[in-house]
Amino acid sequence: MKEDIQQSENRLQEEIRAPLITQTYKRATEEQAENGCYEKKQNRCMVYLSTFVAVCGSFAFGSCAGYSSPTQSAIREDLNLSIAEFSLFGSILTFGAMIGAITSGPIADYIGRKGAMRMSSAFCVAGWFAIYFAQGALSLDIGRLATGYGMGVFSYVVPVFIAEIAPRDLRGALTTINQLMICCGVSVAFIIGTMLTWRTLALTGLIPCAILLFGLFIIPESPRWLAKIGHQKEFELALRRLRGKDADISEEAAEIQDYIETLEKLPKVNLFDLFQRRYLSSLIVGVGLMVFQQFGGINGICFYTGSIFESSGFPSDVGTIIYAIIQVPITALGAVLIDRAGRKPLLLVSATGLVIGCILTGTSFYLKGHEIAVKGGPILAVTGILVYIGSFSIGMGAVPWVVMSEIYPINIKGAAGSLATLVNWFGAWACSYTFNFLMTWNSFGTFILYAAVNALSILFVIKIVPETKGRTLEQIQASINAS
């Protein structure tokens, strides 16, 4: 009887306790979920702030690139410049960028990612002041060369810094913001350049540089760079600041540290060592994407959009406004899709659209030359250009920079990044320089040539470019070099 009574009491206690346990567990689960959401917000806060500060450099890049277009007539009139002198002023920007590209990797490796951004901002500030106070062609050219150098460094170090600080699930989207801010910088310079004097417009270029310089005092350095140079304490502190004080960074820190230790066993490399077999896969991917990005015609079409519309018979001002409106939101759409759809799908969709855009534009010139469907030719031209720029903005504009920042092992990232950026700027110069000659030769043939290059890029992406979505930098670099 005593046993029966005791068993009955135990069952009763269990029945009473069960709902309490369920409620407690439910309440604890809800609290954990709430804490997890808060922790997630806390973890991402410094990453977002660091990305915002870094892409101020991208906006400064866009301001430099967009400065010459709305100021051409005013500068020539005020300083009595010839067409040749102003052409030198415009084109010397790319030469400065090529010098910046050559030196950007070693500088970023030697003084850090933040140090390289500080130095780049200093060159841009000095260049803008030289342009503002210019009384002749020489001061203008010196200022333009300095801002071009800053652009060249920014074009490498900003995507690399963002890729090295971002969590794997946000890396693609955050790195793509680099290209979005470049587009915004160009558009803003173009719009406000129609309302301000050319000297005042030069001063507006100082604003993103000032924000960047101030923000660099707040954000942490790249943890991967700190680990590479052996600053263990600073490395852990920077990673904890980026992931949140309550986050468990042990696994990520161990993975980064193991990878760095593996790389330390490898010899230091220079530009010529990049062509060793162990680095060949990543080098081909990075440089190849830059070649196809530029030689597909983007800078020729971008720099001479107005003349293309005029040649085809479409009003250039209307076409340019539509061009400016469509570029930014589509680039933003690419930033949203890159971590969902992946790098390769965006590249393939983008390259296919580039081929279609080139064929449509080329066909419009063919119809005009043979006086076929004269009224439909201009509409076909503007449709082709808009398809082209929309396709470029959603993939081929930003994704090569994202992939370039992901695939290089950290021991060759400086030299390889410099080479890829140099190839990019050389392609930008070559394409913009030859475009008018090609159009004089054969307008239809020019766009068919660009279509052929973009068609080759589709094969290149399918066969050579790896998918890097959702993988850590260490996993990406280990797999691509192993293959």
Automatic annotation (TrEMBL):
Keyword Transmembrane annotated: yes
Residue stretches spanning the membrane: 47-68, 88-108, 120-140, 146-165, 177-195, 201-219, 283-306, 318-338, 345-367, 379-403, 415-435, 447-465
UniProt keywords, alphabetically: Membrane, Sugar transport, Transmembrane, Transmembrane helix, Transport
Presence of keyword Transmembrane: yes
GO molecular function ontology, one term from the record: sugar transmembrane transporter activity
Main location class: membrane
Source domain of life: Eukaryota
Domain Major facilitator superfamily (MFS) profile, first and last residues per copy: 50-469
Compartment(s) of residence: Membrane
Membrane topology summary: Multi-pass membrane protein
GO aspect biological process, one term: transmembrane transport
Record Gene3D superfamilies: MFS general substrate transporter like domains
GO cellular component terms listed in the entry, alphabetical order: membrane
Family listed: Belongs to the major facilitator superfamily. Phosphate:H(+) symporter (TC 2.A.1.9) family.
NCBIfam families assigned to the protein according to its UniProt record, in alphabetical order: SP
Protein name (database record): Sugar transporter ERD6-like 7
Organism, as annotated: Nicotiana tabacum
